[in-house]
Design goal:
heterodimer, A: mainly alpha, about 85% helix, elongated, B: alpha/beta, Rossmann fold, six-stranded mixed beta sheet, four-stranded antiparallel beta sheet, 6 helices, about 25% strand, globular
């Protein structure tokens, strides 16, 4: 079962690298969104430093959302998804494999790009480790929770808009705790409680999201 | 000897009753051809047989046991070729098949099985070619080659000859015949063309089973 799941992860990564646009689009959007803020609110270091954590987290959240619509869509349209459903690999494991590939091609590049953008946004140097840790815990949850939304809107008209309406409210706790962790580090306060909460959300999403998304996929395939 | 039995199967899509009271029995080595007008429910019946779509009424039994309590096991004994070819344009023909070879039969010998399947449908020379460069007929051959990647007793084929030339249709017939000789079962929806020898016909629209 593990070899089948890793084969699916490798296949999705290969497809993402060869087709390129979805993952690249997410990272480019993330960078552009962060670059736009200093142009909008002005270049004062104090102002930017105060809102840097919020800018980075909101931009990361929207960038992840941008690529989620295609998570199952292409496989659904070309018949691959029903072939996967007819394998010995349980559908929740298939969802997990696709989410892992999505995180590796979208979430991980965001984490790598974030410190560079943090420098541009004048984020306090003490908060860099917290920024990376918060994004490392929050981005898997973005992919997992997003997978449920992507499965629910499969086959729907204007699925992208519907997906945003469904998923954005569920992202609010992630946003709150990620920003709180980064700000706490910048002000010299304890970061651990916020990171633990983000970890708790990730653990809950890891357990619940694959089953929920699998149930939605079964409905779409029927 | 494996046996697939459908008892009074009904299908509802949206608000519409597609068919009702379909009863049939299929044993090892047999083939069943589904016929009927457009919209009669041939594809829906194939999806019910695959365990992808629950029947509105009736039950489907494998070896005397209702498939519903363990749908995952039932799905694993099915190879299904639907209208969509499930070919990724960015992957080569071999890479396309390799994924399914691992998924259905494990990593051991997956590439050899994929190459053998390509060879059986005479597309081995296209192994390294990306899916986007394959013609509709070649993509269909690739979809049908999936049937040969790992043994499964039940083949479900939805208009399998679509886009195939005469040679490819002959290769498909040979593969179906060999599968039946090895004890497999085949259910296929067909509009036209030769039917497998000794196959029975189920008129889905009329819910009538005839000897062919």
């Amino acid at each position: 079962m593990l070899s089948a799941a890793t084969t699916l992860v490798r296949r999705d990564i290969r497809l993402a690298l060869r087709q390129g646009m979805d993952s690249l689009m997410a990272v480019v959007f993330f960078i552009l969104a962060c670059v736009l803020f200093p142009l909008g609110v002005g270049p004062e270091p104090q102002t930017l430093a105060r809102i840097a954590s919020g800018i980075i987290c909101v931009a990361a959240l929207l960038a992840a959302l941008l690529s989620l619509e295609r998570l199952f869509q292409a496989d659904y349209e070309d018949g691959s998804l029903e072939q996967m459903a007819l394998s010995a690999l349980p559908l929740p494991a298939i969802v997990l494999a696709k989410v892992a590939a999505h995180w590796l091609t979208t979430g991980l590049p965001l984490i790598i790009a974030a410190p560079v953008l943090a420098v541009m946004l004048q984020l306090d140097g003490h908060a860099f480790a917290a920024l990376v840790a918060a994004l490392a815990l929050a981005t898997p949850s973005l992919s997992l929770i997003g997978a449920v939304g992507a499965a629910l809107v499969l086959g729907a008209r204007r699925g992208g808009v519907l997906l945003a309406l469904l998923i954005l409210p569920l992202y609010i706790p992630l946003l709150i705790f990620a920003v709180a962790a980064i700000d706490a580090a910048a002000f010299g306060l304890p970061v651990q409680p916020h990171l633990l909460l983000l970890g708790g959300i990730a653990a809950a999403a890891l357990v619940l999201a694959p089953w929920t998304a699998a149930a939605a996929l079964r409905q779409a395939l029927a | 000897m494996p046996e697939l039995v459908g008892e009074s199967i009904a299908c509802i899509r949206g608000e519409r009753q597609v068919f009702d009271g379909l009863t049939f029995r299929l044993t090892s080595g047999e083939a069943l051809v589904l016929v009927g007008r457009n919209g009669a429910g041939k594809s829906s019946l194939l999806r019910i047989l695959a365990g992808l779509l629950p029947p509105a009424a009736g039950r489907l039994c494998w070896d005397g046991n209702d498939i519903r309590p363990d749908l995952d096991s039932h799905r694993a004994r099915v190879r299904f070729v639907g209208h969509a070819d499930a070919v990724k344009p960015a992957l080569s023909a071999l890479e396309n098949l390799h994924t399914w070879a691992v998924l259905w039969g494990g990593r051991h010998g997956a590439e050899a099985r994929a190459r053998e399947a390509l060879s059986r449908f005479a597309i081995d020379r296209l192994a390294e070619l990306p899916g986007r460069w394959l013609s509709a007929g070649q993509r269909r051959r690739l979809a049908l080659a999936r049937l040969l990647l790992a043994p499964a007793p039940l083949w479900l084929l939805d208009e399998p000859r679509t886009a195939l030339d005469v040679d490819a249709a002959a290769l498909l017939d040979a593969a179906v015949e060999r599968h039946r000789t090895e004890g497999g079962m085949v259910v296929m929806a067909l509009h036209e063309g030769a039917r497998p020898p000794g196959a029975r016909t189920l008129d889905v629209g009329a819910a009538r089973l005839e000897a062919c």
